Amino acid sequence: MANEDRRKFLADMARMAFGVGVFGVGLGMYAQRAASLPAQAIRPPGAIPEEQFLSACVRCGLCVRDCPYNTLKLAELGEDVALGTPYFTARDIPCEMCEDIPCVAACPTGALDKGLTDIDDARMGLAVLIDQETCLAFLGLRCEVCYQVCPLIDKAITLDRDHNERSGKHTFFKPVVHSDACTGCGKCEKACVLEEAAIKVLPQKVAKGALGAHYRVGWEEKQRAGGALVTPDKTHEYNLPEGYRYEHEGRGLIQEAAPTPFDADPLETLKRGKEGI
Amino acid sequence: MARKYPVAHEAIATKGWLGAHRWLILRRLSQFGILGLFLLGPLAGLWIVKGNLAASLTLDVLPLTDPYVFLQMLLARHWPELSAIIGALLVLGFYALVGGRVYCSWVCPVNIVTDTAAWLRRRLGLRGGTRLAGDARYWVLAMTLLMSAAFGVIIWEYVNPVSMLQRGLIFGLGAAWVVILGIFFFDLFVTAHGWCSHLCPVGAFYSLVGSKSVVRVSAPRRAACDDCMDCFAVCPEPEVIPPALRGAKKGVGPVILDSLCTNCGRCIDVCSKDVFEFSTRFNNRLPAAESVDPVPGVTEERTSS
Questions:
Q1: Cα–Cα distance measured from residue A56 to residue A71, given in angstroms and rounded to the nearest whole number
Q2: What's the pTM?
């Protein structure tokens, strides 16, 4: 009898452990899948890196409440963003980059890092001029809207001039984003006049490349060191065919004037001919 | 066995409808009132309470944090800021005092859904369904804590129907109504009190918080009980009643000490003999309670002395 009871108890335990265990594994997998934030969803300023964010954000919406521009919203069930977490879509309402950063101040848990005191230091994402085929500036028009609305104009977005070879006489004014200044606020994406924005804010990790750790940019190293770091070369002796030399200052390969029976002035040759060769 | 409905018909006869629904009405006022306070901001621009049950700020000074979410956060290895810590301690202290599962019956909006399902189930006379062990919720609770630690995320908040509904009503429901409807039908057709009394880890957590809570339902006039079973019929956790109600012979005091009791007070409402009342855990003296209010004709309960 006691044996049967024990057996039943163990069976019940096993069933429960298995059932809840399967549920738990499913839940874990779901959570991991949901942790991949879609590229168009941007976290509020000061959000700690996404994996940590999901350990810190309690989904209370206090940041949403204190956003004066209704930029932020909490993800609802059915959206691709982790349920209940705050985000914004730049094309709908971008971040207005309030100087007092009320969303960060409102966060009770530190999911939005209070270490962010200057909104210019925010890195919500990175604007990328993602489609040069439709960007009006790249078609040769003077659009510049993204450049003009940028809160960090001439720092985060500059206009680079380039010759328009198609018309032959015009200049491209190409918007160029600089990652050292861009906060990812999304005002450029919001303002882009196209049907579908040609400039988009993407997550930093999507937008940025990364040099291998062993790469050194020579001219930067030289500037940092205050001089060339490699032993200055002796003038290089090239093994060139006779009559050639190499000029290091930019002219490159030079063919020496070959000795010729003819003078530069044809008359001289004729005179010489009179004297009889 | 066919019952006469409504369950509380005797209580209604003796105490009037209002008297037989007093605590239920107060509970609904509390539940809707709390929801209303949160909604006053977004709907009327009156910002008394901001946020939701996970974390809130009242009158711009009082932070409150859900300690269960807070615990998952700690297990996910995030150390929160002071305001969340204070908020969690305040909430913990409150429920440790008034009864952990007061959260379930007086605050949680899902309770309204599952109570409705339970009411309809009684009304339609639906019986049976899948049996679930009542301690499944503790397994789920343990699982969420384990998974929060393993995955480094506040894992229950990915699927928590309580947050889904409460946050949803305040911030936007999305497809969450499907889940809530699912719980309603689960409770109605599959398992009686299936969600709140068997599966929900939030309630399991709060039952642990309130395991030594002060405010308790007591059955000081249990000698008057006529075994009408109405309290068992309405109670979402009926196994908490017998020790207190029928403990006289075994020398068990009249206070319901089981931490699964939600302090909903519905048993007080539906009892035509006024056996139950709100009391404290310290009011558990046995013979005094039995002799203070003797009811003529009911003597078999008062034995063993």
A1: 21
A2: 0.80
